[in-house]
TrEMBL record:
UniProt family annotation: Belongs to the MLO family.
Alphabetized Pfam families for the sequence: Mlo
GO MF: calmodulin binding
Gene name for this UniProt entry: LOC107945637
Transmembrane residue ranges: 12-31, 61-83, 146-167, 267-285, 291-311, 356-379, 391-416
Protein name according to UniProt: MLO-like protein
GO cellular component, one term: membrane
Domain-related comment: The C-terminus contains a calmodulin-binding domain, which binds calmodulin in a calcium-dependent fashion.
Entry membrane topology: Multi-pass membrane protein
Primary location class: membrane
Role: May be involved in modulation of pathogen defense and leaf cell death.
GO biological process entries: defense response
The keyword Membrane is annotated on this UniProt entry: yes
UniProt entry keywords in alphabetical sequence: Calmodulin-binding, Membrane, Pathogenesis-related protein, Plant defense, Transmembrane, Transmembrane helix
């Protein structure tokens, strides 16, 4: 067998070292220059919110790189920390000394055998601890696997952010014909059109005693997010309420453009990773114990939270319609419109819903990254991969959450939060001009 020295750079051809370094540096430079070019394009097109989102994304990638650097720096020190061997037998992701039987038990794939053998030769930390009757806190191989996890998390995070922006913009683009249909109508007929659409909203969401029951209205809101999250009548009614409350002095306000910019501001928020999300990731790793099926059960958390947030956003539209219906029954209020207020949101905080969406997207992306990390590092038939039924369910839930949140919930949030005071102040602070008459 080769000696440890033969693996070191002492005995590697210099051209091999130089070639590997050249390729890595070249790839890194292409990525860095590409991000800089994208930032310049966003700046030239006056997309400040997206530029700030890109800067935040670069900061998160730098943080992941810093974590990887710290793992490298402290690898030797941590590997020399020895712990009693019985500590290593608790909370394991796989059972030790498992015999190979079918595809359900753990067997390291052959592709990883060489790397595993290499890590054993790279030092004598294990021997150092075995002389004391103990085991290393983390082996060199474990550090290498953590590096792979960080890399996969970074890739999935970037892809997830791209999907969020593309699907969100595609959804809001579908509302553009509604905006154009109103902007081209003269002032007099526009009022008649608004009353027509408002009556449609009231007819569907507010008229009828049974629809005022809290349970019934929540049930309607829950199912509405799947088949008709926003209708043309609802869009026009909310648009008119926003403009009548805040933009009477701005006779040419482009509500749809403001919606796009609101989505970009929300995107700027969700691309970041908060401290409590990192804490969740650590807890997720700690609870990945054999037999607990933690990955499977936690995969339901994002979709449950997402459906709850979506139902709440739809319920706000229902509440707005019901309140308008009540106002119209009072004398002199026949021409009442939707009136924005923070009281429709949980704890009078519209931003709380965005925090939920932020957490949902991060957890879903992390679970998807965790799946691909196991697939890359240990193989499909690893014991950490669990049963095929669990795997398929987790993947389906992950895709549903990503698409539903990006295409339905986040654009719906951008629209509904126009009914909050903070969003109103942010939008009206810089009026946007567009041809057309309100």
């Amino acid at each position: 067998m080769e000696t440890v020295e033969s693996i070191s750079l002492y005995y590697k051809p210099t051209w091999v070292v130089a070639a590997v370094c050249f390729v890595i540096i070249l790839i890194s430079l292409f990525a860095e220059r590409g991000l800089n070019h994208l930032g310049k394009c966003l700046t030239h097109s006056n997309q400040d919110a997206l530029f700030e989102a890109l800067q935040k994304l670069k900061a998160e990638l730098m943080l992941l790189g810093f974590i990887s650097l710290l793992l490298n720096v402290f690898q030797g020190l941590i590997s020399q920390i020895c712990i009693p061997s019985h500590f290593e037998s608790t909370m394991l992701p796989c059972k030790k000394h498992t015999e190979i039987k079918g595809h359900e038990n753990y067997s390291p794939p052959a592709i990883n055998n060489e790397r595993h053998l290499l890590s054993e030769k790279s030092g004598n930390f294990s021997d150092h601890c075995s002389l004391q009757g103990k085991v290393p806190l983390l082996s060199t191989e474990s550090f290498h696997e953590l590096h792979i996890l960080i890399f996969v998390v970074a890739i999935v995070h970037v892809v997830s952010c791209a999907v969020i922006l593309v699907l969100g913009r595609a959804r809001i683009r579908q509302w553009k014909p509604w905006e154009d249909s109103i902007s081209t109508v003269p002032a007099g007929p526009a009022k008649v059109t608004h009353r027509h659409h408002l009556n449609n909203v009231l007819k569907k969401l507010a008229w009828g005693y049974w629809r005022r029951a809290a349970v019934i209205s929540w049930i309607i809101s829950f199912f509405k997010q799947f088949y008709s999250s926003v209708t043309m009548s609802e869009y026009i009614a909310l648009r008119e309420g926003f403009i009548m409350t805040n933009c009477l002095s701005h006779q040419e306000f482009d509500f749809h453009k403001d919606m796009v910019e609101s989505l970009e501001r929300d995107f700027r928020h969700v691309v970041g990773i908060s401290w409590y999300q990192w804490l969740f990731a650590v807890v997720f790793l700690a609870l990945n114990v054999e037999g607990w099926h933690t990955c499977f059960w936690l995969s339901f958390l994002p979709i449950v939270l997402l459906l709850l947030v979506g139902a709440k956003l739809e319920h706000i539209i229902v509440r707005l319609a019901q309140d308008v219906d009540v106002m119209k029954k009072h004398p002199g209020q026949e021409s009442a419109w939707v009136r924005p207020s923070d009281e429709y949101f949980w704890f009078n905080r519209p931003r709380l819903l965005l925090d939920f969406i932020h957490f949902i997207l991060f957890q879903n992306a992390f679970e998807i990254a965790f799946f691909f990390w196991i697939l890359w590092t240990y193989g499909f038939h690893s014991c950490m991969m669990e049963k095929k039924g669990y795997i398929i369910t987790r993947l389906i839930i992950g895709v549903i959450v990503q698409v539903l949140c990006s295409y339905i919930t986040l654009p719906l949030y951008a629209l509904v939060t126009k009914m909050g005071t903070a969003s109103m102040a942010e939008s009206v602070s810089v009026p946007m001009q567009s041809p057309g008459i309100i």
